Structure formats: C-alpha cells, structure tokens
Amino acid sequence: MSTAVTHAPVFEINDLNLWYGDHHALKNINFPINRNEVTAIIGPSGCGKSTFIKTLNLMINMVPNVKMSGEINYKSKNIINKKIDLVDLRKNVGMVFQKGNPFPQTIFENIAYGPRIHGEKRKKVLEEIVEKSLRDVALWDEVKDRLHTPAMGLSGGQQQRLCIARALATKPDVLLMDEPTSALDPISTLKIEELMLELKEKYTIVVVTHNMQQAARVSDKTAFFLMGELVEIDETSKIFSRPADQRTEDYISGRFG
C-alpha cells in the first residue's frame, strides 16, 4: 500500500535538452525524481525513454556527437558539468540493462567487481558484500553453493537478478533499469517486479518499460514520453485512470497510432 509520505527529490531535471548531432532527441524535460519511489518511464519506441535515463548517470556521454543543455541536478549539483566525477556518479547511480549481461567470471567475482574497483580488498568484507547483495535480490539461496562457478551458467532470470545484485554491491543511491524484464519469462518478470517493490525501501528506482501493466503494478509515478517530449508525469494511479493529456489516454488504451 502506498503511504502519504512526501519524498524529497533525489534528481531535479530542469529544461533538459539533448541532441544527437542535429537530431533534437529530448526537448525541454522538467520533473523531479523522488527518493524511495519507483518512477516508470513509458512511451512508444524511439520517444527518448532510454536516452533520458542514460543522461541520469551520463552514460549518454559515451555516444559520439551528443550535446546537452539545461540542468540534471543530483543532490543539488548539476551533473551536466565537465568537472563531475563520473566514477563516483556511476557508483551512486547504477544501471541495469534490458538483458542480463554478467561478466564472463564467477558469480562471486561478478558481485565483488564493483567494490574491488572502489578499493575494497578485504576478503571477509567482500564475502559479506556478495552475500548481502545476493540476499537483497532473493538469489542467495539459489546460488550460495556455486558462487565460484561461471555466472553464464545461470538462467536468464537469475542472470538479470545477478546484474541487479552487482549494481547494488557498490551501495548506490539510485537504480536505473532499462526494460529489465523484456527478455524474461512471466515467472522471472514477476520476481523482478516484486524485487523492485522491496528495493524502493532502500533505493530510488527509475524503470523504462513498454509493459503498461508493469508500470501500473510497480511504480509510484509514471512519466509519458512522446517524440522526445515529456507529455505528463503524475501519480501512476492518476495516469492510468484520469490522464491530463489525450495523447496519454490514447497510448495507454492502445488507440495510439
């Protein structure tokens, strides 16, 4: 059940514009992303959803000829600033992709990788981090007896939960999820959705999804993007029952052409 608690914004996006070369991909985006909430980003293919979440940890900077203007304020600091520490930003704002992409290493080494990169060398501490991260994604009991076997031997749903655990191992503030269940079967999808609802107690989650039912089930707020514009953002219950914009109504009801 949702509570009436008002969460402070962890991100505040003001007048964000983004261009790929001459293509204006994001247009005047404005909204807050609140702490300890799940924010779902919906909209048709090519509308800017994935581009938008990749701006939140500046992974978009890896694409050639990208230019941005406006503000992405994370903890009151505009990260569209060349002086930002990208390693620190990506430690705090983790990303989980559409398809589980374990490293070609053991289950243990996949989880320990991030903490090691950030300087943790103590074996006992790494063991504790690995166990906690796997427990947080309800995977510990399934893999505790094969931590030192290849991660690629896990099922698709287990690989995706492993990648979420890998992101959690660096103790992020925010978890970005780009269509995290689109390649999964219904049972694995349900597990990831249940996980999102549990994780928001500790983390802020932004999830891109094409699945309207998923957005309705897991998110507190839903943002509808169309052709690079944010059409509207509101409480998920309102977006799905009484949207303010006819274009949102048409998209959700399947009349969108």
TrEMBL record:
Q: Where are the transmembrane segments?
A: none
* Gene Ontology CC terms, in alphabetical order: membrane
List, alphabetically, the SMART domains matched: AAA
List GO BP terms, alphabetically: phosphate ion transmembrane transport
- Domain of life, per the record? Bacteria
Q: Which UniProt keywords apply?
A: ATP-binding, Nucleotide-binding, Transport
Any GO molecular function? ATP binding
Domain ABC transporter as annotated: residue spans:
11-252
CDD domains the UniProt entry points to: ABC_PstB_phosphate_transporter
Which Pfam families does the record match to this protein?
ABC_tran (PF00005)
Gene3D superfamilies, sorted:
P-loop containing nucleotide triphosphate hydrolases (3.40.50.300)
Q: Matching NCBIfam families, A to Z?
A: 3a0107s01c2 (TIGR00972)
The entry's protein name is Phosphate ABC transporter ATP-binding protein
Write down the species.
Answer: Niallia taxi
